[in-house]
Amino acid sequence: MSQKTKKRIPILTSNFATLVAGNGYYVDKTSFIHKMEGLNFPNLFLLRPRRFGKSLHLSMLEYYYGIQHRVRFEELFGEYYIGKPENITPLRNSYYILKFNFSGIKTDDVNEIFKHFTAEIRGAVDLFIKEYNVVSESDREEIYSSNDANTILRNFLFKIRGSDPGVKIYLLIDEYDHFTNELFAFNTELFKEIVSRNGWVRKFYEVIKQFMGEGIIDRFFATGVTPVTLDSMTSGFNVAQNITLDNKFHEMAGFTENELIDMIKATTYEEGRFDLDAVVADMRLWYNGSRFSPDAKDKLYNPQMVITFLSNFSNNFTYPREMADINVTSDYTKIGKILQFLPKDEFNAIIEDVFTNEEIQEGLTLQYNLERPYSKTDAVSLLFYNGLLTIEKAVFELVTYQIPNYVIKQLYWEFLRYLYERDNSFMYDNKEIGLLVQELAFDGKIDKLIKYAQKVMGTISFRDLENFRESNLKMIFMTIIMGTNAFYTTSELETHKGYLDLLIRKTELNPGGHEYLLELKYLKKADKKDYNEIRRKGIEQITNYRNSLTVTKLTKLHAYLILFSGKFEVEVFEVE
Question: Exposed/middle/buried for 307, CB within 10 Å: 0-12, 13-18, 19+?
């Protein structure tokens, strides 16, 4: 493909027509229209993490099914799967589109939530009336005679039915649970009050259900993040199918690696300017890794992360200084909100498993029941639904979850650092950390890293030290070095000699040549009598790990055994 015919890297828009009209590259998801229409259920929910392409898919459906967009069909869909004559479905451009977007509803003042919700409903209804000109001025006055969202919606649908019984509505809801998820995190009782029982969110969906039964709302598609809100109102809205875990729809939001490569070739790639395979390999590490169905073959890339990276990379074919999109990494507090309701031991167990082992085995909550105590399985499942964990494999009801990619791994690092600062009244010093990273990168030394680990250890109370373990020591080292884009840090990497503690490899952003293998030991007072034997075995371990590594890109690899005794005593042994 010549430079003249290249597409633009897609802008971060959720409007399908804007993307296409601007010659933006669209990863073709239109084949899923066939799959959606092929289901017995016309009413569907799809849950995916934020910034995963759900809104764009919703917009694509709006332009495909909306009667007002019929004249633009060839312009918008001609080059995509669904635009080919043999693929067009009979339902094309046959619906009146009613669309709600709940992502902007504010929850900072609980007394104003219903007001904002009503404003969204009224605005969407008003847009529908202007778009299709289906009700009279007097009808509009009756529709808006109430300041209650559910009454407005009911009045509106009654008027539609009366004005033209043949009207068929496709109802689209974007981020159906955005504001209720916020409530669930900080005001569970209010969440229960408005969503379950006899609350106004429940009543809203009961209105929709009523007019589905009457045939006015013929199809329904809603996106969101978690099933908590849906499950809480199930008896009030049991007419929709949740296709989140269905393998047929796994790739409906998010990019496969083949889709990513096609996009790079169509927008950015110039032969000889960069190594496509090498760039994709790095992007795989940073942005790939999401699997939402145990049966799915391919893992998915986060679209926003990918597009942000390519937009920066395409300027001069060099990597951006920040590999993570700040709109994603700013969400680390979400981890705390999900875990906050757990007992401390379960809270800590999840953090230790996820952070030091980089995987955790748990069940998957398919339906949330707020009348039951909030469980560890519930919390791990919410981490999964929010994209903070992904399915690696599933054997019967037991799921093995892993961190999807390095960006999300850094998110956990941010959260763990926050916990250390909060619990130990300690602030990490970015300047000191920057200097120790420079030493690691250019000097091949770990002196400053050891001193900083001692500094962090010094903040831990003697009471907490009683239960201190090597896994805690490992987490301290990871909080220090995982925030930098100069190195990738891997924990518990499997070799044929066992699992090594920490492997620290340089990234493409790091011009230095040094990399590190660390074996960490923590000795309590009772262990000191066996110090020599522990040291001997540790040196033997680190030597075996170094010799067994099959990673081909390692450059100047330094291997160290690090033995901490108590809070301050430390000895370091380098294995040549």
Answer: buried
